[in-house]
Amino acid sequence: MRLSSYFLPVLKENPSEAQIVSHRLMLRAGLIRQSAAGIYTWLPLGFRVLKKIEQIVREEQDAAGAQELLMPTIQPAELWQKSGRYDDYGKEMLRITDRHERPLLYGPTNEEMLTDIVASEWKSYRDLPKILYHIQWKFRDEVRPRFGVMRGREFLMKDAYSFDLDKAGARRSYNRMFVAYLRTFARLGLKAIPMQADTGPIGGDLSHEFIILAETGESGVFCDKALVERDVLNEAVDYNGDLQPIVDSWTAPYAATDEKHDVARFEALPKDRQIAARGIEVGHIFYFGTKYSKPMGAVVQGPNGESITLEMGSYGIGVSRLVGAIIEASHDDNGIIWPMSIAPFHVGLINLKVGDADCDKACDDLYAKLKTAGFDVLYEDRDERAGAKFATMDLIGLPYQITVGPRGLKSGLVEVKNRATGEKEELSIEAALNKLAQAKPA
Ligand SMILES: Nc1ncnc2c1ncn2[C@@H]1O[C@H](COP(=O)(O)OP(=O)(O)O)[C@@H](O)[C@H]1O
Ligand SMILES: [Mg+2]
After folding, report:
1. pTM > 0.85
2. Burial (Cβ within 10 Å: 0-12, 13-18, ≥19) of residue 176
3. Interval 36-87: pLDDT, tens
4. CA nearest 49: which of 329, 338, 334?
5. With the C-alpha atoms ordered 243, 248, 249, 254, is the resulting torsion angle positive or negative?
6. 152 lines ligand 1 (CB under 6 A)
7. Which of 28, 89, 172, 310 supports an S-S bond with 11, CB 3.0-4.6 Å?
8. Pocket of ligand 1, candidates 94, 211, 282, 321: which has the most ligand atoms within 8 Å of its Cβ, to mutate?
9. Is residue 205 left, alpha or beta, with left meaning phi > 0 and alpha meaning psi from -120 to 50?
């Protein structure tokens, strides 16, 4: 992509409405613009990141055996009347009436809708187990939308729902999602710690929030330092094998959100291992038994003709919130530092002297070669001061910058900068290409 024709409205000044660094940087780097409180347009650069995150989430759900579908954003109120949540949900639900005076709503979540589909389609125990998911916009009319995409009113969520014949099966589904979440966040370059979370009125211990530690986080959290120091889950997982040992290894050390905090257990840890911090909830998994299957009639016939009410769980990831969370975890004074796996472009190619025949030619050549090698390249081909070009590149945070100037070119050299480390190297064009080839994500 040539920057001269790209829609990238960067801001020089810090926008006054933004209270936290990720919101500030998302506005300044031209990722989003607010349309109304808590509702955003994703501009081209931000949209690329959102799509890359979505794709990683999708790949890991698929790997765990979940099947993707797509439910609508608008739901009939009737479904929620059946489950009893229509009145309970309160003002966060955006209620709509159509021209025939039929009550509709903009979905804040999809338990009812999917349980209803399952109830009418599945008749036999042979139809189970299954995990279904979609990645769809939600609307919750939050009292205080804030921090940009972190707490929006309209936001993109991956929500999965598991259906099993018994509790043991539900536990296996829960474990699949638990492990898929560990892998998803690791691929996003994040250290997300699973913490015991509130299960609400149903009780039980099967609810975990996946939390990124950050000063600007909205949740108070407590955990054993062992979890913070632990390596993220990078190795491949056999989802058909027994996942309980992996889950146990992550849940044995103490970790809880403030609603589930057990002061005695926490204080039994050595002082230097007690972490009391703030965190951002990027995912939440939940087992809730027959809470929806019972009222909505999601019942199948067992092998001996008996009726089985399905055991369910639900599993959310805040896809749009993740863009902000990743920036909170990865930035410096000059701007964003994208991990390679989700960077909107892998490389920024900076032409220091647009119009100079040698610089233009070297850049055109590099641009073509990088693209052939599979890199997403943003080519800074505008007629601007060098300082402004560098500042923009640092602000938008592409992992690598290649700078081409007349002086270096005389000796056949370009400069490669690693955005994360700040390390700069003068290399021949060949060597620069080789260097990047090593960093390329699979
Ligand atoms: N208002 C919001 N804006 C952005 N993301 C949200 C919002 N509410 C929830 N999410 C994301 O969706 C995931 C699943 O939501 P859920 O746990 O149902 O919401 P909550 O924790 O607010 O009850 C959360 O872990 C979070 O990452
Ligand atoms: Mg939650």
Report:
1. yes
2. buried
3. 999 999 999 999 999 999 999 999 999 999 999 999 999 999 999 999 999 9
4. 338
5. positive
6. yes
7. 28
8. 321
9. alpha
